[in-house]
Amino acid sequence: MSTATALRWGAFRNIARALRAVTRPGSPGMGTRLSSLPRLVRATARGEYAGTSLGRLALLVGAVAYVVSPIDLAPEALLGLFGLADDAVVVSWIATTVVNETEAFLAWEEQRRRTVPGDVVG
User: Fold this and answer.
1) Tens digit of each residue's pLDDT (9 = 90 or more) over 56-69
2) CA 103, CA 36: separation in Å to the nearest integer?
3) Which residues, including other chains, have CB under 8 Å from residue 30's CB and lie 6 or more apart?
4) C-alpha distances in Å from residue 100, one per residue of 18, 28, 85, 107, 115
5) CA distance 13 to 57
6) CA distances from 113 to 34, 50, 79, 107, 117 (A)
7) Whole-number pLDDT of residue 68
8) Contact assessment for residue 105 and residue 43, using Cβ atoms and an 8 Å cutoff
9) How far is CA 120 from the centre of its chain?
10) What is the rounded CA–CA span in Å between residue 86 and residue 89?
11) 1 CB-side CA count, 13 A
12) Per-residue pLDDT tens for 3-55?
């Protein structure tokens, strides 16, 4: 199996895992996850949420910009399927990162909601 093929299949597996996580019974849907992203950024920037970093969020924004940008490091027109493989890897990383980051963030928000001010959490 070529490297491009292996990358492509790995990317598809990551996307499938992310979709399974999103469609799990009781799991927040993609709309809920995407709408939580601005709150995640604000809480991270304020230092309230330590589950991720501004650097990681910046990488996520950069990855999205790379995918939607007309400029490509490995152009499909010249490199065929290998040109698609780099995009597939980046898209799978974006999907996996959004699912994982929002999963942890939404759990953190829920925990904060359950905690009554003045109670000791230990």
Assistant:
1) 999 999 999 988 88
2) 10
3) 22
4) 8, 12, 22, 11, 23
5) 23
6) 20, 17, 50, 10, 10
7) 83
8) yes
9) 32
10) 5
11) 8
12) 656 655 666 676 667 666 666 777 788 889 889 999 999 999 999 999 999 99
Q: Which two tokens stand for residue 37?
A: 């992203």
For residue 119, which amino acid is it? D
Separation CA 50–CA 120 (nearest Å): 19
Residues 6+ apart with CB under 8 A from 105: 36, 39, 40, 43, 49, 51, 52
Q: Residue 12 and residue 9: Cα distance in Å, rounded?
A: 5
- Angle at CA of residue 49, ends 47 and 50, nearest 5°: 85
DSSP 19-32: HHHHHSTTSPPHHH
Residue type, 63: A
CA angle 99-109-47, nearest 5°? Answer: 90
Region class of 120: left (phi > 0), else alpha (psi between -120 and 50), else beta: beta
